[in-house]
Amino acid sequence: MPFARGRHAPAAGGRKPGNARAKTVLGGIVLLCLIAMAVSWGGALTHSSPRKEGGPETAFAAPVILDADRYGALVLDPRSATVVGVDEHGTVRWRDRNLAGSAEVSCLRRCPDAVGSGSAEDTGRSSTTWRIGSVRRVQAAAGLVLWADAPSDAIVARTAPGGTQVLEIRRSDRSQKYPLAGRDPQLFTARDRSLAVLLTFEGQQAQYRVLTRGPAGWTVSKPSHTAATSACLAGQRAPIVLYDANRAWLAPPGRSALRALPAAHVGRCSLTTDSILVQRFTDDTVHGPQTATRLLDTSGHIKWQRADPGLHPANADLDTGSIALPTDASVLILSQAGGIVHRIPGAVDAQFTSAGCLVLLDSRLRVSRQCRHTGAPHSPDGRRDNRP
Questions:
Q1: Is the confidence at residue 16, as pLDDT, over 70?
Q2: What is the distance between the alpha carbons of residues 39 and 53, in angstroms, rounded to a whole number?
Q3: What does the DSSP assignment read for 189-230?
C-alpha cells in the first residue's frame, strides 16, 4: 500500500488494518477495507500499506494500486474482486481472483511478478500463490509469506514443530530462523526494499523488530516493546514512525530508540527525509466520507493541513518531498508547503516509484507513468530514468 510495498488484509478479530500505499490492503485484501474498519473504530485507519481501506461501497467503485515499481503494477479491481498484473507498457499480463482473497499481496523483485499468501478472511486455509512471468503456481504453504524477491528469497512467518512461532529468512543458500512472541505478524517494508519493521501482538502490547537489508541479506534486530499497531517507513535515509489511532512514535534514521510525537488521529502515514504525511479517514451522516491530510515535521508539529471529500490514501516521495493525493476529481501533486503544483485529471490512484516518477491508474484500469522533476533522477536500479 509503496506506502510500504504491498498491502495486506486485516486479520480477523480486528486488531488493526495493517500499507503505503505499501503496504495490504485488498478486497479481502485492500486498502479499501482498512478504511472501513478505521471508520467503524472511530475514524482512524491504522496501516501503511497498503489493507482493505473501504467505506461506503460507492466510495470504492474505483480500482486501487496495491504495489508498483518502474516495471509494472498490481491493481485491485473491486468490481470483479480481481488483482490485475500490468507491465511497464500498461499491458495487462494476468488477472487473478485468488490473489484478491490473500492476506498479503506484493510484487516480487519486479512487478507485476507477485506473491499472495494466507487468507484475508481467516478461513484457516494456508496457501501461497506465485505469479512469475506467465507461470502461476499455488503452494499449500506452511507459513505466511510477508515479503519476497523470489520463492527462494523470502521472509516467512510460520509455526514450527511444537507450536512455536518463528520468523524465517529464506535465501537460496541458507535459512535463518528467529523466535516470534505474540501473533498476527505484520511486516511494513520501505519502497527501496532496504528496510522493514515487523510487528507482532500479545494482548494490548506489541513487539517490533527492525529488519535491514544489505549485500548479505536481511539482518534482524532484537525485539522491543511498543503500544503501536502500525508503522510507516521510507528507507534507511528516513525515520521510522510507529503509531496507533491516538499516538505516534518516531525513530530517527539508523536508530531504534523511539520518542513520542505530539500527533494524534493517525490513520495512515508516509515519509520523506524530514516530513511525516499523516491522514485520518472519517465518515458521518453530516459530512459523508472525508480525508483529513496533515504534513508534520519530525517533531510532530503541523506544517499544513487540508480536508477533502472521499476516502483517499496519499503517499509522499522520499526523494523530492512531493505528495500525491488522490481526490474525487483528480490526483493532486502537492509541495512541501501544501501548494498544488500539478493536477492529473482522470487518475483515481497514484504511487511514487522513483524520484519524481508516478504510476497512475484511471477508472478503466489503465496504468501509465509520469515523471515530473528538475534534474535527472535515478531509478531504483541506478540507471537514469527520464521516460515520460
A1: no
A2: 9
A3: E-TTSSEEEEEEEETTEEEEEEEEEETTEEEEPPPEEES-SE
